Amino acid sequence: MKVVVVTALGGPEVLRVQEWTKPEPKAGEVLIRVEATSVNFADIKARQGRYHGASQPPFIPGLDAAGTVEAVGPKVKGVSLGDRVMAFPSGGSYAEYRRSRVVGLPHPGFHCLGDGGRFADRGVHRL
Fold first, then answer.
1. Distances (CA, A) of 63 to 11, 43, 75, 77, 87
2. Among 20, 31, 101, 107, which one is least packed by beta carbons within 10 Å?
3. Phi and psi, residue 14, nearest 5°
4. Stated pTM of the model
5. Neighbours of 90 (CB within 10 A)
6. Which regions in the chain score pLDDT beneath 50?
7. Cα radius of gyration (the chain)
């Protein structure tokens, strides 16, 4: 899968597209095929090394993602394959696939979007 990685602290020139292994969901997680993500001010500050709690390079930036559930790990309730969701996956969101923690619904940081509409619009409206 393709991911965007911050390879060093700095401007946009430090972002690189890389190929990584597609993750598998663990217990209490789902795998999301990312359709939309956002560029937040926090992402820019983290890339520059000026955001509290930011990782040191290399890291995948991004705070949120909207997409479709492609795989469901053990102990997940209330989420099914094909569900359209918005999540705040740990470890960044600038990737084709991301794991997100969700044991059951409701769960903070994970929301089902329902059918219809563009992912980018639905994610923004859900917030």
1. 18, 7, 24, 23, 9
2. 20
3. -85, -5
4. 0.81
5. 13
6. 104, 124-127
7. 14
